[in-house]
Amino acid sequence: MVIPSVKKLNPPVGRLRRYALLLACFLCASSCLVKIGNDGTVTVSSHCWETAKASTTPNGMARVLLMGLFSVDILLKSNLKGGVSKLDPCADRRKALDPRKLQALLDTVVNQFPTAKEADVRKSINGRICELRHQLKSKSVLV
């Protein structure tokens, strides 16, 4: 990778700062992770965290963090608690999402939005997972 010198770029200060942050993230990926949850063992990318913090609703924040914590492939094969489908009992049993990551997500959302109800956040998470499955059926999601 060739990094142009700062003299050649002569960017405005804001752009220079973003360039430095991007370079730092590239050189040390672990420094671009943000710990979430009450125990601090779960991390998301700093980009995911900044996007989640910019959300104006608890459900919006939960949906952003969900996509940052779990791959689309995992989400398509899972649901919130695990178990069989209520709509199709003959379908394969789905795995539960990682409880440690899920609890970190819930803790973070409730910490950012104290009036948020955990049940509503869980409902929005399940809704997002259902949306992904629907998009897959209509071939508009990449796995």
UniProtKB/TrEMBL annotation:
The record, for InterPro entries, names: BEN_domain
Q: Which UniProt keywords apply?
A: Signal
GO terms (molecular function) for this protein are: DNA binding
Matching entries from SMART domains are given as: BEN
What Pfam families would the database entry show?
Answer: BEN
Q: Where is the BEN domain?
A: 37-136
* Signal peptide bounds: 1-31
Supply the name of the protein.
BEN domain-containing protein
Q: Which organism is it from?
A: Onychostoma macrolepis
